[in-house]
Amino acid sequence: MASVELQLEPEERVLFRTGLHPLAFTGAVTLALFVALVVALLIGHNDLPPRTELQIALAGAAVAVLGALPSALRWRNTALAVTDHRLLVSTGALRPRRLGIPLGPAAIDQEAGLTGGLFDHGTIVISAPDGYTSSIGHVARARELVNVARAQARRTPRRGTPPG
To answer: Quick one: how far is CA 164 from the chain centroid?
Structure first.
């Protein structure tokens, strides 16, 4: 999982961190199952020499592995963290994008979807004060992330306003 330590300011504390849920690999698993079915049908319904069957199986395995690379890179490079004052996000498959958003009432929201409550994951919708909006799917412990961020937003005075 990616790290958000590069984004931390001096004396900033991480209160909660999470990454992607294993369900982020559903597309890669579905592709691998489809490729396995095609390979099995090609080999099972054709009278091919063993060398050709091996080549088909190896090509199918290569397609399945190459299809899983984007999911694996996204898994490795995605992290979300709530700190004392902001929400830190690092996401992306090849070149991670890093984002720090001040905590506020509308900074983060969650969509559980069909399996979110059952498997404890969801889609996180992030809204920055400048109008930037982004969503990250299959975030592990998404409900807990949103609850911690909202609770911290209520505790933290906004920058530029006096506490009290």
So the answer is: 37
SS3 of 81, please? strand
Strand order of the sheet with strand 79-83?
Answer: 14-18, 79-83, 86-91, 97-102
For the entire predicted model, the pTM comes to 0.77
pLDDT in tens, the chain (164 residues): 567 777 778 888 888 999 999 989 999 999 999 999 999 999 999 999 999 999 999 999 999 999 999 999 999 888 888 888 888 888 887 787 888 888 876 678 888 777 777 788 888 888 877 777 888 888 999 888 888 888 888 886 655 444 44
Say what the alpha-carbon torsion angle 132, 137, 142, 146 is, to the nearest 10 degrees.
Answer: 10
Q: What DSSP state is assigned to residue 96?
A: -
Q: Which two tokens stand for residue 132?
A: 């930037």
The alpha-helical segments, DSSP class H, found in the chain are 26-44, 50-77, 116-119, 142-155
Instruction: Round to whole Å and give the CA distance between 84 and 87.
Output: 9
